[in-house]
Design brief:
Chain A is mostly helical. Chain A is built from 8 helices and 1 strand, in the order βαααααααα. The longest helix of chain A is centred in the N-terminal third of the chain and has 20 residues. At the A-B interface, strand 1, helix 1, helix 6, helix 7 and helix 8 of A face helix 2, strand 9, helix 10 and helix 11 of B. Strand 1 of chain A pairs antiparallel with strand 9 of chain B, so a sheet runs across the interface.
Chain lengths: 200, 558
């Protein structure tokens, strides 16, 4: 016996949502775009991928990118003997996560935090948080932390640590630097490369 | 003429033994499973991709449940799971949650079958004896060891299991050297350390590879096939007989019954979301306790206006979780000698030790002896992201920057960690149950389960006692910075009850063979049958009981 389900029964779309892995595969793709953008400043790129992502209106702007990347450098600083946020594509990963992983509430929080950091920077005589000295950036991060009850730093720090210790197939933990630093071994079988898009 | 001899709804630890047994007996069986059919090669050690069970459980917006919990004013507040921040899904895939278990296997003790007789009634709790005894179930525990694959070492101790075979069919997994430290510590304190049996094969068997010792078991599908999931150990064999068909991505919408009250068909939505029907002589429900109750309650019929097998309004009552607590201790390398540090750094991930010295205990205040529980000791789960995020927590606010990096180095490179988990009886009572929510529907248009999660105060009392004992052991091992968390809340990965079995149809849903009192050809074989849960993880008992019932089903078909 076969009966069609009435379409009105749907709440939020048919079938399962994209799996988390499928989201991450897209993040890796978004990260590539983000990386290209970073290399050529604010230049826009043509093509379906950018158009699709822009339409969703979720990607980081250049100002947000600069501000949050600087904040991530304070949250997880880089050193010659240990990787930091900038070494593991933490900002590219967060940019992708803005599109596919985190809800609109968290997205707005990330955005508002970025705006607020630059407002606080103005109080220190500059227009961009990223232009401040590291110690001043750290002070302002603590101010933002208190203002947001810790929510902003929790979201950004979580994604920074995911970039540090996630599987490199997702465009993070470049060359396994995070795993090497902390002695993480034995995570096999590893997920297939993004373009293979297999499995659960 | 029915299409199949048996139709099983749900393919986890409750459904797999029935499918395998019926198929092996030459009878036809169809398994209806909501989740996808993933194979061994589909499982990776991919923390980002998995993020706990996220890859293997439904979107809460598409498949919500409703949590009903105490509010501040003494009443109950209901929130759909997308808002509640927690849910009860444990694995929607062929093989169910057994794919994602750790595989710490303990048998129930004889006293667990007689909780009321052994310890007497508990105020406000619906404690009941089981209609069967440990001896009735023992042969099936033994069968699980052989068929599903349980590795371990039988030792004599105060609560040692009565066994029909001398030892386990598979030798224990290689242990971390800390197991020896643990044993020495416990023996010095007059305790009985127990090697924990694992549903993990130490070597290749029947096309399943042996354990690869990544230690990444809990929450992950097993890529070697060593873990004894229903999928790897049972369904693959059942399908190989040619007598078993698994219909994955098929959501059961209801069991159809006739005017006489017999079940005649299951209606389900297939992967194209078409409504289909399958007929069988016998029906077996095994969707985990909450969803099993939901399916029965949804399945009204001319002789079952309140839902299938629900003449006395008992379906959904006495939902059980496991009373749980946790503790962790740190072993900083700087405290130990070079050779000891070498042992602490061992890459083997399994500690595999438990204590059941307080399976029952006499409280210090002189009140009567009461049921206690099990302490399982283990190393930290290897997932680095969740471990790193845990390091951001500090007394004076979150840690970041250089202090965080320093702490990460300490955590991952300069110390070992031992943790314990407490398993104790969750008292069945009137405010812990499953009903159908009157308003919320899932994306198939079906009413969803509304789960009231009332806690009995006894749970917390017992867990606090056991958690203190666990901390003492960690301290005696030389651990520092010991943190404990006795939990009053439900452990959402251990579900039982809602269709308790018994000899009296007025107080039980199922008879002693787990057949519905009211429906002659309907059985329930997941953990729903349990009137009380015992003080161990449930999976071994669910497997064993399902094999027991499967034998009855085959007998009736013959």
């Amino acid at each position: 016996m076969t009966t069609e389900l009435p379409k009105t029964a749907s709440r939020g779309g048919w079938g399962y949502r994209l799996s988390r892995r499928e989201f991450l595969v897209r993040i890796a793709a978004a990260g590539l775009v983000a990386g290209a953008l970073a290399r050529c400043g604010a230049a826009r790129q043509d093509g379906w991928r950018m158009a699709e992502l822009d339409e969703m209106g979720a990607r980081l702007t250049t100002a947000e990118w600069e501000t949050i990347a600087a904040a991530q450098d304070r949250l997880l600083p880089s050193a010659p003997d240990s990787p930091g946020a900038r070494d593991v594509n933490a900002i590219g990963y967060l940019d992708g996560a803005m599109l596919f992983l985190i809800g609109s509430e968290a997205r707005d929080l990330v955005r508002r935090g970025s705006v607020r950091l630059n407002e606080l920077a103005e109080g220190r005589g500059v227009t961009r948080f990223s232009a401040l000295a590291e110690a001043t950036q750290a002070e302002l991060l603590h101010e933002l932390h208190d203002e947001t009850d810790g929510d902003w730093t929790a979201v950004v720090l979580r994604h920074t640590l995911e970039a540090l210790l996630g599987d490199p197939v997702y465009g993070v933990n470049t060359g396994q630097v995070g795993w090497t630093w902390l002695g993480i071994v034995g995570r096999y079988p590893r997920p297939p490369r993004a373009e293979q898009g297999r499995g659960g | 003429m029915p299409e199949f001899d048996v139709c099983v709804i749900g393919s986890g630890a409750g459904g797999g033994p029935v499918a395998a047994t019926v198929a092996a007996a030459g009878r036809s069986v169809v398994v209806i499973e909501k989740g996808r059919w993933l194979r061994r090669e589909d499982f990776f050690k991919d923390e980002l991709g998995r993020d706990r069970h996220d890859s293997y459980t439904p979107d809460l917006h598409l498949e919500p449940q409703v949590v009903e919990d105490r509010n501040g004013s003494g009443g109950w507040s209901a929130r759909p799971t997308p808002e509640a921040g927690w849910d009860f899904w444990n694995g929607s895939l062929v093989g169910g949650a057994s794919n994602l278990m750790s595989g710490f296997f303990h048998r129930l003790k004889p006293q667990d079958f007689r909780l009321l007789s052994e310890f007497g009634p508990v105020d406000g709790a619906n404690v009941a004896d089981w209609p069967i005894s440990y001896d009735d179930l023992e042969p099936f525990y033994d069968r699980v060891e052989r068929v599903v694959g349980v590795s371990g070492r039988a030792v004599q101790h105060g609560l040692a299991d009565r066994r029909s075979s001398a030892d386990f069919p598979y030798p224990p997994l290689v242990e971390h050297p800390l197991a020896q430290w643990f044993d020495r510590t416990c023996v010095e304190r007059g305790l009985d350390p127990i090697p924990v049996p694992r549903a993990i094969l130490p070597h290749p068997v029947d096309g399943r590879r042996g354990c690869e010792y990544t230690g990444i078991c809990a929450g992950y599908g097993c890529s070697s096939g060593a873990k004894g999931s229903s999928r790897a150990a049972l369904l693959s064999r059942a399908v190989a007989t040619g007598n078993c068909e698994v219909r994955a991505e098929s959501m059961a919408a209801g069991i159809v019954s006739d005017a006489r009250g017999r079940a005649v068909a299951v209606e389900y939505f297939d992967r194209e979301r078409r409504r289909r029907r399958v007929t069988a002589k016998v029906f077996v429900v095994a969707c985990q306790a909450i969803e099993t109750a939901r399916l029965l309650l949804m399945s009204t019929g001319p002789a079952h206006p309140r839902g299938l097998a629900n003449r006395h309004g008992l379906v959904g009552k006495n939902l059980l979780f496991s009373a749980a607590g946790f503790g962790i201790g740190h072993l900083p390398f700087e405290k130990f000698s070079t050779s000891e540090v070498e042992e602490l750094r061992s890459p083997f991930p399994f500690l595999n030790r438990a204590l059941q010295d307080w399976y029952s205990f006499a409280p210090e205040n002189g009140s009567a002896r009461m049921k206690g529980g099990t302490l399982d000791f283990l190393l930290l789960h290897p997932d680095p992201i969740s471990r790193a995020i845990a390091q951001t927590s500090a007394k004076n606010g979150p840690l970041w920057g250089w202090p965080l990096k320093r702490r990460l180095v300490r955590h991952f490179r300069e110390e070992q960690h031992v943790r314990f988990e407490v398993f104790a009886d969750w008292m069945p009572h009137d405010d812990c149950h499953v009903t159908l929510d009157p308003d919320v529907r899932d994306h198939w248009g079906l009413p969803v389960a509304r789960v009231r999660v009332g806690r009995h105060p006894r749970n917390k009392r017992v867990v606090e006692f056991l958690t203190e004992r666990g901390a003492e052991v960690l301290r005696a091992m030389g651990a520092e910075r010991i943190r404990t968390r006795p939990s009053a809340g439900p452990s959402t990965n251990l579900l039982a009850g809602t269709c308790r079995f018994g000899d009296d149809p007025r107080t039980s849903v199922l008879d002693r063979d787990c057949r519905a009192h009211d429906v002659e050809n309907l059985y329930v074989t997941d953990g729903s049958f349990m009137p009380t849960g015992g003080s161990v993880p449930y999976t071994w008992t669910i497997y064993a009981n399902s094999f027991r019932v499967a034998d009855r089903i085959v007998e009736r078909l013959d």
